[in-house]
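Feature request disguised as a bug: please show the residue count (478) next to TolC family protein in the output. Example input:
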Amino acid sequence: MSSKKLIYISLGVVFTAVIMTGCKTPSLMEKTVNRTVPEKFTDSQDTSNTAKLDWEEYFSDVHLVGLIDTALIRNQELNIILQEIAIAKFEIGARKGEYLPSVDLKAGSGVEKKARYTPEGASEATTDIEPGREMPEPVPDFQLGAIASWEVDIWHKLRNAKESAVKEYLATEEGKNFMITQLVAEIANSYYELLALDNQLQILNQNIEIQSNALKIVKLQKQASRVTELAVRKFEAEVLHTKSLKFKIQQSIVETENKINYLLGRYPQPIERSSQKIIDIMPDSVQTGIPSQLLNNRPDIKEAEYKLAAAKLDIKVAKANFYPSLDISAGIGLQAFNPSYLIQAPESMLFNVAGDLMAPLINRKAIKAHYYSANAKQIQAVYEYEQTVLNAYVEVVNQLSNINNLKQSYELKAQQVQALNESIDIANDLFRSARADYMEVLLTQRDALESKFELVETKKEQMNAKVNIYQALGGGWN
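Example output, currently without the count:
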């Protein structure tokens, strides 16, 4: 067997070993996502869903609608997320460019002096460009050309990387939508808190007037020696205590207004709002639809789904690193030691074409680690998706229960307020006729005030539940 043939056989064996070793991939633990959800939230199977309503339609208060509209334009956190979306979009372009051929233009010049007593130096010294004209020393070098390179995407590694970037981009879009639902809900809840504080301030002013009138009566009775100075001081203390509560509520109003202003991306200023008492607002009924609709309505679920898809593609990208890669490079141009010779083709023309096929053979630990890491991230993405779906279902169920319990609580508290309002009149009448102690009057007034505050607070919680169920169902972003 000739030595040349032996070399070819040896190269073939080595190449086959490289291919076989490179294509061998380690096994992974697989985890499939569970997309099943319960069939219903309640006994109803109605598919009508409040989440399909636009937020402008769901919230009828024109002042609240105006605040939300402003926030969607000026909120800084939302604008930061919009820039993250732009970054993700540019990443798609970068990944797409990686699997397309690249061409670079090259122009350069230089000078080189070879040592005379070297093969190259001796060759240049004895070379004539033309009869009677020797090679210049040192030798200038001028070149102009184009260089192309291309990694042939045999295993779709680069395409899968681009598709992964697309999924990440879509995930950031859904993240933005989820941010919008949170922003809409936070503004609406703060707005209803502001209405509740206004209502409590009105109640407080009314109560101060009632207590002040009662104080006048006690002073008259003291003059008539029907009560002692202790009763007068007790009534005065109660009036002062109630008046001090005004400043606490006024401070809460300022802080709530500024919270809304912050969400709107503007400096503190008064918030325009409805003059209607929150106690008079009736929450609308909510249609929850069926749980499977959450998968399409909730942006956080869709975000988790896109991230899961991206994680699956990343495994394919990592797996492709075990396989051989084919790189093709080529160049064409002009090169001469004198610029005037550059246009004398074909003598000044040069070109090259090369192809490299490489596969990992030794020390593949880094590739395996990257492969295992991508698999672990995919399993993590599965758990995060399932957790997001479970959390969405639990949120809806909790809010449905909250709405029902708040409705019953509000009805009972309304009856309590009515009973205590009547007891104030009774206590005052009994006090005037000396059939009730002044402490009974004071305690009755205090209980009535607390019950009115609690009624307003319960109404606010009802309105918050209306906002929260809308958000839990996936409404507010469309």
